Amino acid sequence: MNILFTIFLLLIPVFFLLTRWRRSSKRLPPGPLGIPIIGQSIGFLRAMRANSAEEWLQQRVRKHGPISKLTLFGKPTVFIHGQAANKFVFNGDSSMIANQQNESIRMILGDRNLTELSGNDHKRVRDALLLFLKPESLKQYVGKMDGEDRKHLEMHWNGKQQVTVLPLMKILTFNMICSLLFGIEKGARRDKFLECFKQMIEGMWSVPLNLPFTRYKRGLKASITVQKMLKEFIEEKRKELKQGNPSQRKDLISCLLSMRNEDNEEVLTEKEIIHNVMLAMAAGYDTTSVLLTFIVRFLANEPAIYAAVVQEQEEIANSKPSGEFLTWEDLAKMKYTWTVAMETLRMVPPVFGGFRKAVKDIEYGGYLIPEGWQIFWASSMTHMETSIFPEPSKFDPSRFEKQSPVPPYCFVAFGGGPRICPGNEFARIETLVAIHHLVTQFNWKLLADSSFCRDPAPVPAQGLPLQITSKKNY
Hints:
Blueprint (H helix, E strand, L loop, with lengths): L1 H26 L13 H9 L3 H12 L3 E5 L2 E5 L3 H9 L5 E3 L3 H7 L9 H15 L1 H4 L3 H15 L5 E3 H18 L5 H17 L10 H28 L9 H7 L11 H32 L1 H16 L9 H5 L2 H13 L5 E6 L3 E3 L2 E3 L4 E5 L1 H4 L40 H18 E5 L5 E3 L3 E3 L4 E6 L4
GO cellular component, one term: membrane
Cofactor: heme
Keywords: Heme, Iron, Membrane, Metal-binding, Monooxygenase, Oxidoreductase, Transmembrane, Transmembrane helix
C-alpha cells in the first residue's frame, strides 16, 4: 500500500502537467506549423517576391480566422492583425511581449539593437538615439542634406534622358547615411562599406540556414565585416573627441560616444553603438529609398496630385535667392507634399511587417500564445482595410490632412506608441528635401508598368525606369 501511495503521489504532478499541456494545446491558434525551422517561410517569401503576400495572409485569415499559427524563419509563430493587434504589438507590456525580429535579422544586425531590447534597456538606448534624431537636433542638418541632394542630381540625373529610380535612390540614401551618421566622405572606404552593406541587407530576410551559397550565410559574413569597419570608425571618433574639437560631434557615432552617465562612463556599450548604428543604416537605406521611388511613381500616375506638389515646391523655390539651401522653415511649408508621402507609405509600406516575442504565456483573442513563440504582424492589413480607409486602392493624400485624423494604431508605417520609429523625423526631412529638388528640376514619364514585388522591401518593375527632361528655368 505504501508503494502504491508513493506512486500515486508521484503521478499527481505528472497528471497536472499532462492536463495543462492538453488544455494549452487545445487553446493554441488554428493552423499547421509545418516542417520544423522552415515551416511556411519559403511560401511566404515567394508570396512577398510575387507581391501577393497580402493575399497569402488573407487566405490564412479566411481559412483559420484572424489569429493563426505557423512557422516563420525558424520559429513557431502566431499571426495577428487589425487595429487591436497593432496596439497590442506596439503598446504591449514589456513583461509579456518583447521586441524581437526574426532569427535572420537578429543574427545579422546583432542582439543589442533597439528592435531587440525591452524595458529599461530599450528606453536607455532609444533616448540616446533620440538625442541625435529628434527634430531640435536635426534642424542643423537640413542644409547638409540639401547639399547631398544637389550633388547627387548633378552626378546622376543632370544631362540624362533616362534614369532608373530605385538604384539611384539607394545611392542617395546610402550617401546620406555615410555623411550624416558616420561622417564618412566619398572614396574607396565608402565603396567597400557599401559592397558589404548590400550583402548584409540581402541576408536579413531569409531562412536562417547557415549553409554555403545561401543569402543568410553571405549576410552573416558581410555583417562581421561591417561590424569590424564600424569598430574602426568608433576608435577614430574616440580619438577625435579626445582632441576636444566640437565640430567632430556632428555625426551619430560621435554623438553616442559623447554621452556620459553620472560616473562619466559612456551611456552605451561599444556593442550597443555598433548594433544600433547597423540598425539605423539598414532602416534608413531601404525604407527611405523605397519611399522616394514610389512617390515618383505615384506622381507620374496622378497628374493633379503632381501639379499640386510642384506648385507647393516652386512657391518655396521662388521665395529663396538662387542657390540658397533649404531651411527648417521651408520644410514646415511642405504640408501637402508630406501628405503625399504618407499616402505612399500607406499603400506601399517599405516594411511589410515585423515580429515580437512572447516573454511568457499570453492569452490573446481567446487563444494561447506560448512563451518563446514569435508574434507576427503585417502593416498592410490595416492600411488597406475598407472600414478604416474608404476606397483603399485609391491614391488620396487628403486622408492625412489634419481635419481627418487617422484612428490610432491603424496607420503603422512608422510603428506606434513607445515603439514608434525614432528615425521618422530624419526620414521626413530626407524625403521632403529630395522631392523638392526632383519636382523643381525635372519632369518625368514612366517607361515600365506599375507592378512591383517585395524582396523583402518593395521593388518596382525594372527598378522604375523614367524618361526625364530638365526644367531649364530652375
